[in-house]
Amino acid sequence: MVGIVLAVIAGIIVLLVLAAILKAVRIVQQGFVGVITRFGEFKDIKNPGLTFIIPFIEVMKIVDVRETPRTGDRQQVITRDNVAVIVNATIFSQVVDVRLALFTNSDYLVSVDNLARTSVRAVFGSITLDEAFSQRERIGTMLQTQMEEATDKWGVRINRVEVLEITPPEQILQAMALQKQADQEKRARILESEGQQQSAVNVADGQRQAAIKEAEGAQQSDILRAQGRRQALILEAEGRAQAIASVYAAIKAQAPDPTLVAILQLDTLAKFAESPNTKLIIPAESAALLGAAQAIKSVMADVPSTPSS
After folding, report:
1. Residue 196 CB: number of other CB atoms within 10 A?
2. How far apart are CA 244 and CA 161, in angstroms?
3. Longest dimension (CA), the chain
4. b or e along 77-96 (b: 16 or more beta carbons within 10 Å of the residue's beta carbon)?
5. Closest by alpha carbon to 96, among 154, 176, 9, 50?
6. Is a pLDDT exceeding 80 seen at residue 6?
7. What is the pLDDT of residue 300?
8. In the chain, where are the structural domains located?
9. What is the average pLDDT across 254-273?
10. Residue 131 neighbours by CB under 8 Å, 6+ apart
């Protein structure tokens, strides 16, 4: 009987030892930390890995220190210009001080969600509907700044806030669609007019260039014709000069006397007389011509006449 009792006691002791060992050994996963309290009082913070605590005296609570996205519920807010819109945002928060997160707030996750709702209402109440649609990044920054003023006391950091949804009433959507269509038609008309203007400018520029080219061509043609006429006149004058020089050289080579000169003058006058013109102009040197004719007459008189048959 005593042996059985001892065996039972030994078994109980072994079970207690095993339970104590299991209670003492803890494993903290990566991305988490362990907060140890002793009799309810904060004692230590354990980093990821294998750790030990005093069983039945110390208690370890695991806290997630990773960045956690929390998407809030869709809620209706009123903008500064009194337009009711449906808004939804995602809060990216992270515990940076586990001691503050556990012991200064009963539930920091619920507190962050409630703070996000009130911050969204406050921020959208300070902007207009147009600003809400065009300044989402600014709205996220404003929400983050406003929330950090409270979450810093809880050991929670707000990394960023992203506005997922901004839905105005149906009539506002229809008005915005009409405005967008009008803006697109306006831009289309502007682009069309700019295209026509540019086309007209290009056509005018082309015509101007063509006129310039045509004028330059005509000018070059006139210059070439003038040069040709000038060259022809020069060649004609040179030919006449050469002819006169040749005639003068031939006459000079024959040593002409006054009688020969008079004959040449009469020959020239005869050629003028053969002209189809009805008028004959007698040169001022007619006395000389008459003298030449008298000389010829005397010469011919000296020539013996041929006896008639």
Report:
1. 10
2. 111
3. 212
4. bebeeebebebbbebebebe
5. 154
6. no
7. 52
8. 7-64, 68-174, 218-268
9. 64
10. 138
Of 16-30, 46-60, 95-109, where does mean pLDDT reach its minimum? Answer: 16-30
Q: What's the pLDDT at 19? A: 77
Tokens (6 digits) for 132: 């809400």
Q: Which 8-state DSSP code applies to residue 305?
A: P
Q: Which residue has the higher pLDDT, 163 or 275?
A: 163
Taking the whole predicted model, whether its pTM rises above 0.90 is answered as no
User: Quick check: 96 and 155 in contact, CB under 8 A?
Assistant: yes
Which residues lie closer than 8 Å to 35 by C-beta, 6 or more apart? 42, 45, 46, 60, 61, 62, 63, 98, 99, 102
- Please tell me which residue, 65 or 272, carries the higher pLDDT value: 65
CATH number for the domain whose boundaries are 68-174: 3.30.479.30
Q: DSSP 3-state assignment of 4?
A: helix
Least confident range from 15-29, 267-281, 287-301: namely 287-301
Cβ atoms 79, 125 nearer than 8 A: yes
Number of residues assigned to the chain: 309
b/e per residue, 155-168, with b = 16+ CB within 10 A?
Answer: bbbbeebbbeebeb
CA distance 68 to 297: 145
**Alpha carbon distance 138, 143 (integer Å):** 9
